Amino acid sequence: MIILKTNLGDIKIELNFDKAPLTAKNFQQYVEEGFYNGTIFHRVIKGFMAQGGGFASGLDEKDSRETIQNEASNGLENKRGTLAMARTQEPHSASAQFFINLSDNDFLNFKNESVQGWGYCVFAEVVEGMDIVDKMTLVETGRMGFHDDVPTEEIIIESAIVE
């Protein structure tokens, strides 16, 4: 179990080591290293997802470890309350950033091993605190630098711990 202690409240997450072993291990390692402490949810889109894990306060980008293999073909779906790895257009480019699905986002699921079909790897699920995640969508968002949908009041992961 992972607990994300945010300035809005706690979010408890259960990692799925059976279906996404590399991704779950990668996420837990970032937690154990304290990487997520003080990071923000930098992109929140109501009805879609809340993304975090890559920026400190003020949109100060953090340096992450090497990218990991995309395990999106594991059968897990981008359903409300699941966590998936964020990535660029390159399917195997995920490192530290993740997002929490705010609704069922089937279009993000694995379809095939093409650039368009890889999808986003689900590796965990919120088991407690989805009300806290929903609170994130109440914060006004705007543009900051090159980024859209940035909460105007920072949503901070004060600490992330393995329980």
From TrEMBL:
One of its GO terms (molecular function) is peptidyl-prolyl cis-trans isomerase activity. One of its GO terms (cellular component) is cytoplasm. It catalyses: [protein]-peptidylproline (omega=180) = [protein]-peptidylproline (omega=0). Signal peptide: none annotated. Residues 1-162 form the PPIase cyclophilin-type domain. InterPro entries: Cyclophilin-like_dom_sf, Cyclophilin-type_PPIase, Cyclophilin-type_PPIase_CS, Cyclophilin-type_PPIase_dom, E_coli_cyclophilin_A-like. Gene3D superfamilies: Cyclophilin-like (2.40.100.10). Keywords: Cytoplasm, Isomerase, Rotamase. It is found in: Cytoplasm. One of its GO terms (biological process) is protein folding. Its main location: cytoplasm. It is an enzyme of class 5 (isomerase). PPIases accelerate the folding of proteins. It catalyzes the cis-trans isomerization of proline imidic peptide bonds in oligopeptides. Belongs to the cyclophilin-type PPIase family. This is Peptidyl-prolyl cis-trans isomerase. The lineage of its organism: Bacteria, Pseudomonadati, Pseudomonadota, Gammaproteobacteria, Alteromonadales.
